[in-house]
Amino acid sequence: MVLLLCQIAVILIVSRIVGVLAERVGQPKVVGEMLAGILLGPSLFQIVAPGTFDALFPGSSLGSLNVLSQIGIIIFLFLIGLELDPKLLRGRGHAAVVISHTSIVFPMVLGFGLMFYLFPHHYAPGTPFLPVALFMGAAMSVTAFPVLARILTERNLHKTRIGAIAITCAAVDDVTAWCLLAVVVAVAKAESVGAVGWTILLACVYIAGMMFLVRPFLKRLQDVHDRQGRLGQDMVALILILVLVSALITEWIGIHALFGAFMIGAVMPKGGRFVRSLTEKLEDFTVVFLLPLFFAYTGLQTQIGLLNSVELWLEALLIIVVACLGKFGGSTIAGKLCGLPWREASAIGTLMNTRGLMELVILKVGLDLGVISPSVFAMMVIMALVTTALTTPVLSWVYPRRLFVQASAAKTKPLLPHEKAFDVLIPVAFPRSGGPLLNLANLLTGKPGPTGSGGNIVALHLRRPVDREAYRAGLDDTITPAQDESLEPLLEHATEHNISVSPMTFTSVDVAGDITQVAQEKHTDLVLIGFHNPVFGKALLGGTVASVMRSAETDVAVFINRGFDTATRVLVPFLGTSHDRLALELAGRIGRSGRTSVTVLHVVPPVATTESNAARTGARQAVNRVFSDPTQANPVEIQTVESDTPVSAVLDAAKDFDLVIIGVAETWGLEAQLFGMRSERIARDCPTSLLIVRKYAANV
Predict the structure, then answer these.
(1) Where are the domains of the chain?
(2) How far apart are the first and last CA of the chain?
(3) pLDDT tens, residue by residue, 579-596
(4) What is the pTM of this model?
(5) What CATH number does domain 418-561 carry, 3.30.300.30, 3.40.50.920, 3.40.50.620, 3.40.50.450?
(6) What distance in Å separates the CA atoms of residue 27 and residue 356, rounded to the nearest whole number?
(7) Distance between CA atoms of 258 and 86, rounded to whole angstroms?
C-alpha cells in the first residue's frame, strides 16, 4: 500500500507539472501528460536513475497500478460516449459525410498495407497476419475526439464551419474506430471463422439490446432527474453499475470491456442537464486522478530503447509519415473535392490528424492482446505523441487566427447609419449584474427619436471552459440561453418588465476578444459592460474591462452599479473631449424617456482666461447640438464650476444624482488606454452609479 501511494503521488506530480509546461508552449495538456508517462518509464527514468526506478516501480508492484489505470479508462470511455451527441451526426452536410468516411478508409488501407513491410521484421514466424494488419489499420484511423474538441475551443474555431465539420468527422471516426476495434478484438481472440461469426452475432444482439431496452430505461432515469432537479448518489451508483455490467457483457462476448463502457455512454439521452450533472460528478476524478495512472502505466510499457538502430528509427519515421498521409492527406483531399478552399481543407486535415489519448488506449488493447509487438508499440506511441503535438503549430500556420476572425466579421453586411437603430451589447458575467445592465440598456435604446426606432439589446454570456470541460468543451454550446444560469435572472427580468432582448451564450477562452467580435458581427453601437470587484492589487478598471476598452471597434461604456434602478437625474461632467461628447449623447438618449433631467457639469480653472472662455463656449455648443432634439422632454441644465481639483468637484456634485456619465480622460484619473496608471478616484469614490464611456476613434 505504501509503495502504491508513493507511485500515485509521483505520477500525479509529474503529470501536472509536465501538463502545465505543455500548455505554456501552446500544446494541449494531454500532450504533456502523455510525455510524462513516457518520462517515468524505462525510456528515461530507468536510464537516469535506475536504482530509484527499480525501488519505485518494481515489476511485482505494477499489477495494482494496472488495475487502477484500467478502471480509469473504463470510466473515461463512458465519458467519451456521453459527449457524443447524435445531433452532431445529422444535418452537417455532404462535406462532413465524405470527409469522415475518407478519414477512416484511407488511413486504414494505408495502415493495413504498411504491415506487409513491418510484419516480417517485428513478428515471430507463425504469428497470424490478419489480426495484426487489421489492428494497425484501426489504430491508424482513430482521431482523438476530446483533444480535437479542446483545440477547437481554445482557438474559438468551434463556432465556425471548419469546427462544425471537424467535430462531426471526429465523432463519426470515434464511433467507427471502436466498432472496428471490436471486430479486430473478435478476430484476434477467436480460434476459428465460426467463432468470429458467433462473436459478431452476439455483438449485434448486444447493440440491439442497448438501443431498444437500455436506452428507454436511461430516458426514464433522465425524467426522474429532471423532476427531482438533482443527481443523487443512488442514481450515480446505478449508472456506474450499468457501466460495469455493460463492460462485463462485451468482455464476455469477446469484443473488450472498453467497448461496453463506451456504448453505455453513447446511448445515454443527450441534450439535458442529466448528462452534464453526471459528467461533472465523474470527470474531475477520472481526468485528474485515474488517467495519469494510465499514461504512466503505458509509459512503463513503452521502451524507446528498443529502437536501437537507424533502421528502426527510419521505420518509426515511416509510421509517422503514413499516419499523416492517411489522416491529413485523405481528409484534405476529401475536403477539397467537396468544394472547400485548400486552406480550409488543410485545416480540417490537420485537426483530423490529432490522435492523443484515444490512440494510446487502442495501442494498449493491442499490446495486451499480443497483436502488436513491443517495438511497434514504441513506434506507435511516438507517432501518437508527434501527430498530436504537431496539430496546434501546423493549424496556426495553415489557418491563422486572423483568417477566421475576418471570415466571421464578413458574415453580415454592415448597415448604414440611417438604416439601423441604436443597438447595445451587454456582456453578462454574473447573474446579479443582468437586471441593472438591462435597465440601463433599455433607457439607452428605448424611446424612438425623430430619425429612427428603438434599438436592439443583445445579452451575451461567455462561459469560460473549466478543467472538467477539457474533453467536451467543443460540445458545450448545446446549452441554450434559457438554460444558462447567468442569463436566467436577466431573461426573467426582461419578461417581467416587457423588455425585448436577444440572448446569446457560448464557451470562450478569450472573453474580451469574443465580446469585441460579437459586437462587430452584430454591428452594435455600444458595448455596455459591467464592472466587478478586481483582483487584489490590480487596477480597478483592468483585466477584461480594459481589454474591451482597448480593442472594441465600437463605443464602450463601463457600468459601475451602486444600487441603480432607473435614472431620474443624470450628471455629465464635461471637458470637451470626444469621450465627453459621447457621454452627452448617451445622456440625451436617456433624457428622451421623459422622466430624466440632465445636468452638464463644466469644470474650468478658477482664473478666467481666453482658453477657459473658449472652453465655456465650446461646452454650450456641444450641449446645444446634442440636446436640440425636439423629443427631449426635459431641458438640460449647464452648471459651470471653477475648481483646481476637477475630481473633487465631480464627487461633490455626484451625490445629488442617480447616475454619472463620464468620459475617460487623464483629468478624471481615467485613461482610455492605460487604466490603473492613475488614482481612478472617481471610479472608486463616486457615491452613485457611474457610467465610464470611451468613444471609438473611428467614430470621432
Answers:
(1) 2-399, 418-561, 562-689+696-700
(2) 71
(3) 888 888 888 888 776 678
(4) 0.67
(5) 3.40.50.620
(6) 11
(7) 20
